[in-house]
Amino acid sequence: MKTFLLAHGIQDSPQSALQLAISANPKDILQYPVRLPPDDFNKMIPRHQTVQDVIRELVGHRLDEDLGNLADQLADRLVTQGDFILITWYFLKNWLPVLGADAAMFVLVLRNMCYFNDETGEIRDEVWMDGGYETIANRLGINNPRVVANWLPVRIDRGKRKDKLSERTVEELSRRQRLQDLLGLFVDRTEHRINSEGSYGWKFKVQRVDPLTPQHQKIQQASSSLFVKSESLCVQNELGCWISNLGNDCFETVKTEPMVVLRLSDLTNDCSETLKSILNDCLETLDLQANDCFETLLKILKSFKDSLKDKDTSSTQDSSISRNDPSSQSVAVVTDSEGNWSLDKLLARADKKNRSVLIKQEKSAIPFVSWLIHGASQSSIQNPYSLAIAKLKENPGISAGGASDRLAAIPPRELVRLIEQSFSFYSPSDRDWRMLFAEAKRDRIRLLADSLGLVLGIEEETGWMSN
Hints:
The protein is built from 25 helices and 7 strands. The protein has helices spanning 2-7, 14-23, 26-29, 51-59, 65-78, 89-99, 101-112, 132-140, 145-149, 167-183, 214-232, 236-244, 264-267, 273-284, 293-311, 319-324, 326-331, 343-346, 352-361, 366-377, 384-394, 402-409, 412-423, 431-437, 442-452, and strands at residues 115-116, 123-124, 126-130, 187-194, 200-206, 251-253, 260-262.
């Protein structure tokens, strides 16, 4: 929008430029594809910016009544409620090319029908679409509903398939299966119903957080294995030094071919046999000829080195350093002056009656945190926050027990680090954490952070996380 207005002379004639924008097709203003984010995107602090804010910035002064009215009209035209969809950069950059435009838009449409309340933790991630494939196809602008049918596993058996299939048919079925598997990471069709007109309605369970692409999943698994092995074999410090000395000149791109050529012999020259072995194991599991694969691995390793610094931070540091520690800042909104969980702050989102009851009856915040951890670790529990309140009202002072209790009892800063490490590809070695969350999807860990009211300092520059 800013580019459009500048191109049409808003700084010389604001009124004319705004009138032109109001009469223009929104697609001409909000053009696709959009420009990529700047290099320092991950360091930028998100801020709410309205259409009016952009116009005010371009004009250079406060909007008078006439310009204000025009700005309001343009805002109504561009961002009418229900006419826009939020898309993460990770989805746009990594999943769109894999899924294709139509299937990707199907995911976005379903996500837009879901609901999440930041205040209460309420999630609605199951939606109905009546009318079957025809409705979905019409919504996406697809002429043939069978295209949509091929995206989803068969729900209703239509009869036997031919015993012998042509090679072309086998290839097509294989392509469909790959797309179904990928789409299944986002969407699961769980139920169907028939309406009075005889058409089907489908119920979908929708994943609101972007999963990793298959390539990124392999990188994550290889990286996690490397980190765990380096810790178990006591070569973490050597790994850190190796990462520090690892420059971008260890690989080069061949201009004539879209592949990365690695000087593998140079990578591990100065390593011990132990570290060399686990590094080679890591590299052998990856498709290093794939675009950006090794570059992505380098970013993870460097991020891992930074996480090691945080992990080694001593609790004996003076208070001035502690206050600047990211983990301390993350939990400040839900802890007391001594850095312990504050039940009063944790219950800030609860209704007045429940808040009053729990504050009066509970002697510690640990049981409440324990139930939040337990609820987040169970995929069948939609709202850990409501679960924790209900459990403590029913049985005051009784926590979830087991690993949930032990995690709730560690310092809040340490729990934040476990959460952040889970998002930064360092698989936490904490036994209790791994017991509960080793197989958990990232949206469950995000849900735990949301339920605790944590303000996480997780960078999303590489698109590994989504909001």
